[in-house]
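anyone seen this seq b4? input:
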Amino acid sequence: MTRVLPAHVVIAACAFGLAASDCVRIHDPAVLAVGAGLAAGVLAPAGWGRTALLAALALAGTWWWGSTRLDQLDRSVLAPRIGTADRFVAVTTAEARRGSFDLRQPARTRGERVQLELPLGRAPPQGARLSLLAVVKAPRGPEHGFDERTWLRRQGVHVVLHVDEWHVVGRRGGLGGVADRLRRWLRRSSSPGLTGERRALVEGVLLGDDGGLSDGSKRAFRRSGLYHLLAVSGQNVVLLAGGVLALAAALGIGRAWGHLGALTAIGAYVLAVGPQPSVIRAAIAGAAVSVAWLAGRLRDAWHLLLVAACALLAWNPYTLFDAGFQLSFGAVAAIFVLGRPFLRVLDGYPMPDWLRSAIAISAACTLVTAPILWFEFGRVSLYGVVANALVEPAVPLLLGLSFSAAVVEPFAPAVAVSLAWADGWVAVYIASCARAISALPAAQVSGRAAAVAAAASIAGAALAWRRLRPARTARA
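predicted toks r here
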């Protein structure tokens, strides 16, 4: 087990302070620091006085910072203009998502984030500078179990622009423009020659964009417990960084240059796919490992996980309420705590190592994420362990082929087409697994059955943790 170090305590205090700002906002850091310091002096165990003081100061500083950031996110110059019409110049910051009756697309205008409400049909590309005529509206309140107003407010969005007319007048520049070009290149080069559902699934796993998938395919991935594959995961970042390091080794390039290349690739990929919690978490962890190796100061996994959580919460403390944040960090924590013990339990069974690892990791993640899924969505997939074990060997292959096709496409288009063709068949296999599992009876339960499944997951995780305690104590 990982030993608790002073750095863990201080960084955990930072994360707690940022999370606490969601409950109570404190704008006087001096008062908070004095109170935290006194509490640290009283409650700190022997020999931890300095660490406790540093943790108290970190708690006070991050609590104040989180409160300040929330005040900034809650401000809006457009909210007082709800109900009025005007002409705006806006920049789209992501791709449009298709709904039943309209298109929704995030954008920025007049210094704040907004959501565009567009009629069905052609949508502006990501990064487009638009001149538009729109009515300023308030986001929808609670409806059919979803509160759009609260969800958008936590992203710093306070108004919806109902667009009556728009046309493109240019494209954004700077870092955002670089991100747009990287995304277009990766989309074009990673799956040349593919069409339909195969291309849509490859783009979904690679870029986290499920817009090209049919409603039936999305439903199958949700029911089977595989929908997380369509929200870019940390596995993508790990495979990309590992691929760059392997390529550097194969070319005889020094390991230091390999780590610099991995840092560059991680940064480019994050720009291309956008700041999703799972991607940011893995990117920070991967970058920290490379930087630590270059500096000769390797850290443990818990340290990196806490740093990633602090980075996300420092930018937006409301991220704590984001289902992607909860599922991503919950799953990784589950792997840290339960993954290796579950592997030991499976040691005596006749199965290949990759299957043993897939079952152990999937079981650990399922136990921890099932309560989160029930709390956030009211649904739980019962065959997630089976589904994830089936697709575990296919996902790295799909990503590897996608990245390889993107790399070779500029100078060997025929090779890229061949790689994409093979990638399409991997996508077919993953989609077939999702459909087969989703067709099983009670593949996904909701309501009271989901609550029972979530309670059983909590009990299972607690029982597994309790059974590990004797082994941990004996080792100590």
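DSSP finds 17 helices and ten strands in the chain. Confidence is low (pLDDT under 50) at residues 470-476. kinda curious what u guys think
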